């Protein structure tokens, strides 16, 4: 009953924030729904960025990886903070200013306007939108699965029932206020996430002690406390350093992250946003310790993703367990609402623009909200019929492949401007290489998307130069008269 009451109170607050943000954004102009009227302040911008980046994968997936592979995950997870900080300080301002100059309201629209106009631009915007639908849809399914696993024990319901309840809640507060509602609710939820992470650190370092934890891990398997490989990220322990560029690309190339940069108020200094990013990120780096605790004291779990629920059941009291579970639920909801917003926007705005529809029912706020509902329910159905798979791997498959596909047309385009031919080639190369390496080989989880990014960059620069040279050397056909 306590858990249901906590859920009800938090739902009331989140939906209230959503309705208030809907009033602030207005109900006529899509800019409020798409980019929050470019009105996010420093803390809200940092809060929504961190809450979305440090999501279910940090509170469920990362402890699961630590349970399965050992303490290397604690080291690997720490790279997300500096990566997000660098992205905020050195990429966000460029993207914000250029998008404002072009009038871009979404990342696919920004990519299209940066590389082509007319029919080619519409094709490019449509293709990027379709890739977002596919790959972020996969990631959204993984988030809903993680939510179901967490909520099932917390509310004493089946994972499917728990996922359904939370999916309806996320749909409710996302569809009314758009990105402004997403950002405001994320900023509120990140405070609880930080509290939960700090409690995990306190239990492991103060109540149990790092020495006792390491001794127990050594008894089970010495490689857990002192890893000899970089699994699951690569063969060598040095593979963990690949998380730094991977997380940077995560923040810059993934549309559900970078769209937040478009929504920051124009008079806000990015240094102020960066300070909050650093503070919040550092405080959220204790979560893999829950996986090490579960492996040390409960080494026979059937599913590594149960490490965090096991920690909450045995390491803290019932009241604290309920509160932290609510905060972890906040983390997963913060990403789920961002994904629903980005995917539904690709469906309702970018595909509509690609088809040349400029008026009618498809341009109304009602249609945008209906697409949020459709995307949320489709993701829930996908989760219900998904075969067993680790949450973190499914997230890497969706995010990593999308990151590779968009690397050339987002980050490379920041330093060197290609053309539409290079953009199409870049998307195809990044998508194909990353998807193949993740699905068809045993290469590390991080290495596959990074090789895909390399292929995307080569395709972007190479094809842009080649097509430009061919255009310069093509003879001009003159009239016989």
Describe the overall structure.
The protein is built from 22 helices and no strands. The protein is mainly alpha-helical and 481 residues long. α4 (56-69) packs across α18. It is globular, with a radius of gyration of 22 Å.
Rg of Cα set:
22 Å
Number of domains: 1
Overall mean pLDDT: 85
Q: Oligomeric status of the shown chains?
A: single chain
Determine the fraction of residues in helical runs and give it as a percent range.
Answer: over 70%
CATH level 1 class label: Mainly Alpha
Instruction: Give the terminus-to-terminus CA distance.
Output: 89 Å
Do you know the CATH architecture?
A: Up-down Bundle
Main sheet specs:
none
Order of helices and strands: HHHHHHHHHHHHHHHHHHHHHH
Large-scale geometry: globular
Please give the count of helices.
22
List the helices and strands and how they pair.
Layout: H1 2-25, H2 30-35, H3 42-53, H4 56-69, H5 72-77, H6 80-90, H7 92-102, H8 107-115, H9 118-155, H10 159-208, H11 210-220, H12 222-225, H13 243-253, H14 255-262, H15 270-283, H16 288-297, H17 307-314, H18 318-354, H19 365-384, H20 391-415, H21 420-440, H22 447-473
Helix pairs in contact: 1-10, 1-18, 3-10, 3-14, 3-15, 3-18, 4-9, 4-16, 4-18, 4-20, 6-13, 6-15, 8-9, 9-10, 9-18, 9-19, 9-20, 9-21, 10-11, 10-18, 10-19, 11-16, 13-20, 14-18, 16-17, 18-19, 20-21, 20-22, 21-22
């Amino acid at each position: 009953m306590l858990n249901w009451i906590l859920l009800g109170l938090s739902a009331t607050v989140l939906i209230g924030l959503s309705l208030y943000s809907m009033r602030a954004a207005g109900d006529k102009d899509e800019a409020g729904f798409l980019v929050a009227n470019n009105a996010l302040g420093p803390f809200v911008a940092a809060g929504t960025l961190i809450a979305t980046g440090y999501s279910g994968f940090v509170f469920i997936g990362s402890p699961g990886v630590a349970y399965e592979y050992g303490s290397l995950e604690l080291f690997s997870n720490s790279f997300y903070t500096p990566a997000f900080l660098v992205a905020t300080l050195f990429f966000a301002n460029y993207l914000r200013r250029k998008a404002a100059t072009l009038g871009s309201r979404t990342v696919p629209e920004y990519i299209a306007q940066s590389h082509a106009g007319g029919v080619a631009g519409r094709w490019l915007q449509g293709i990027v939108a379709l890739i977002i639908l596919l790959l972020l849809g996969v990631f959204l399914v993984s988030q809903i699965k993680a939510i179901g696993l967490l909520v099932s024990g917390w509310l004493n319901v089946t994972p499917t029932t728990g996922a359904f309840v939370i999916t309806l809640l996320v749909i409710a507060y996302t569809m009314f206020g758009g990105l402004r509602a997403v950002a405001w609710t994320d900023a509120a939820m990140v405070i609880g996430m930080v509290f939960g992470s700090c409690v995990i650190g306190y239990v492991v370092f103060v109540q149990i002690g790092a020495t006792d934890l390491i001794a127990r891990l050594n008894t089970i398997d010495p490689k857990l406390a002192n890893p000899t490989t970089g699994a699951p990220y690569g063969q060598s322990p040095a593979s963990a350093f690949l998380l730094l560029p991977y997380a940077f690309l995560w923040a810059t190339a993934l549309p559900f992250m970078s769209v937040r940069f478009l929504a920051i108020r124009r008079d806000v200094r990015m240094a102020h946003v960066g300070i909050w990013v650093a503070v919040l990120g550092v405080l959220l780096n204790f979560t893999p310790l829950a996986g090490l605790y579960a492996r040390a004291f409960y080494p026979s779990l059937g599913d590594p993703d149960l490490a965090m629920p096991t920690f909450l059941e045995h390491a803290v009291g019932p009241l604290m367990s309920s509160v932290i579970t609510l905060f972890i639920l906040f983390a997963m909801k913060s990403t789920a609402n961002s994904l629903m917003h980005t995917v539904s926007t690709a469906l309702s705005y970018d595909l509509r623009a690609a088809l040349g529809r400029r008026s009618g029912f498809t341009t109304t706020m009602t249609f945008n909200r209906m697409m949020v509902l459709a995307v949320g329910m489709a993701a829930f159905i996908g989760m219900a019929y998904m075969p067993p798979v680790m949450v973190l791997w499914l997230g890497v498959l969706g995010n990593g492949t999308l990151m590779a596909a968009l690397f050339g047309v987002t980050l490379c385009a920041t330093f060197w401007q290609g053309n539409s031919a290079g953009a199409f080639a870049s998307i195809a190369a990044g998508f194909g290489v990353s998807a193949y390496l993740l699905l068809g080989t045993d290469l590390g989880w991080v290495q596959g998307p990074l090789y895909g990014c390399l292929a995307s960059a080569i395709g972007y620069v190479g094809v842009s130069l080649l097509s430009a040279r061919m255009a310069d050397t093509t003879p001009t056909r003159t009239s016989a008269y």
